[in-house]
Amino acid sequence: MLAQAYNQAVALGDWAVAKKALDQRIARFQTDPFALKLDLARDFAPKAKSNGDKIVIGNYVAGLFDSAMEQDRLSEARAIQLMVTAMGRDTHDVGLQTRGTDFQRRINEYREVKRQFDE
User: Fold this and answer.
1) Between 20 and 30 A from 18 (CA), which of 29, 31, 92, 109?
2) What are the C-alpha distances in Å from 54 to residues 29, 49, 64, 69?
3) What would the 3-class secondary structure string for the chain be?
């Protein structure tokens, strides 16, 4: 039922309803909350038309970055960085642009440390 509500909300472009259905699904079932939240942002990013919607989604997905890094999910961290950077560029939002640049720096530092550790 919650999955159906989520899918319908995504199809209709209703961020608030989709997020509520997702939050309820996470609370009720054993799931990977990080992956579901990232999927929510991925589902809505292409549908966002207004700068306000893009900024909301950009900030939401930016909030997932630390979890990605802490869980050693580098490919997801990179996807988040790219989404935040794109949303910042599209909206001319300096906050998102700055976060995207910071995320890229942190990913590069992580890769360097990991490379040194693996040697």
Assistant:
1) 92
2) 29, 7, 16, 23
3) CHHHHHHHHHHHCCHHHHHHHHHHHHHHCCCCHHHHHHHHHHHHHHHCCCHHHHHHHHHHHHCCHHHHHHCCCHHHHHHHHHHHHHHHHHHCCHHHHHHHHHHHHHHHHHHHHHHHHHC
Q: Phi and psi of 92, rounded to 5°?
A: 60, 30
**What span, in angstroms and rounded, lies between the C-alpha atoms of 10 and 36?**
13
Question: To 10 degrees, the CA torsion angle through 28, 3, 43, 40?
Answer: -10
DSSP code of 29?
A: S
Dump pLDDT digits (tens) for 27-66. Answer: 888 888 899 899 999 998 888 889 999 999 999 999 999 9
Cα angle value 81/3/85 (rounded, 5°): 10
Identity of the amino acid at 72: D
